[in-house]
Amino acid sequence: MTAPIAAEDQKSSCAWATEALARVFAAMDADYERAALAHGFVCRGCDDNCCRTRFYHHTLVEHLYLRQGLSALAAADRGPIAARAAQAAVRMAAEPPEPVMCPLNAQGRCLLYAHRPMICRLHGIPHHLRRPDGRRQAGPGCGDFDRQCGAAAQPLLDRTPLYSALAELERELRRRLGFGAKIRMTIAQMVIEKPALSDGKESDHEIY
Ligand code: SF4
Ligand code: SF4
């Protein structure tokens, strides 16, 4: 697929980027479903629970999108999430780090399911990826995938076009905003912190 960032130049806010990301995510979800179906894999949650894994997220557009979902929640719901995120961020910073449940997981349910980041959408199924230098990289499925389908199952999910689409979208957003900072954030951090855009850019849009 290609990044769906076409003729949106006239929009001054970041809304075009989050709309485009929603389309990229829809493509990811469809590819994931196809691969899961091909393997006969069903995620019903598990004791390992990948929502306890300390994943880092690296794109501004995912950060904006997550906060867009957050800001759409009722204030009464945001308060407990913010409190859990603050606690989680402290515990994740401990040495050695300990597994901490994502602050968006409540009784096994993702409170921002439609706005969850990329890795939450792709985790679990063995995959392969063609890197920019041409090398091919493979990654395993989760433990429950191995139990259900066997560890020797061949990778079916090609993350390459999905990563490429996200990367293209991120490049374009950063270019338009003049944003050059590196991002390496947990979900807890993304809940706590606003994207560090310039003051002028922040006032342009209302999604966080
Ligand atoms: S994707 Fe795998 S590790 Fe994550 S909850 Fe589902 S079965 Fe468990
Ligand atoms: S954002 Fe949702 S799916 Fe991702 S780790 Fe948190 S609770 Fe789990």
Concise summary:
Mean pLDDT is 88; it is low at 2-11 and 199-208. The protein has 208 residues and is mostly helical. The longest helix has 25 residues, at 15-39.
SSE order and pairing:
Elements: H1 15-39, H2 60-72, H3 75-92, E1 105-106, E2 109-110, H4 118-122, E3 127-130, E4 136-139, H5 143-149, E5 157-158, H6 160-177, H7 187-192, H8 199-202
Parallel strand pairs: 3-5
Antiparallel strand pairs: 1-2, 3-4
One iron/sulfur cluster (SF4) is lined by residues 43, 45-46, 48-50, 123-124, 142, 144-145.
Task: Please tell me about this protein's structure.
The chain has 208 residues and is mainly alpha-helical. The chain has one domain. 46% of the residues lie in helices and 7% in strands. The longest helix has 25 residues, at 15-39. Residues 2-11 and 199-208 have low confidence and may be disordered. It binds iron/sulfur cluster (SF4) (2 copies).
How much of the sequence lies in strands comes to 5-15%
Described by strand count, sense and barrel closure, the largest sheet is:
3 strands, mixed
Shape label: globular
User: In total, how many domains does the architecture comprise?
Assistant: 1
Q: State the secondary-structure class.
A: mainly alpha
Helix content: 40-55%
Please supply descriptive tags for the structure shown above:
single chain; 208 residues; mainly alpha; 3-stranded mixed beta sheet; two-stranded antiparallel ribbon; 46% helix; globular; disordered N terminus; disordered C terminus; binds iron/sulfur cluster
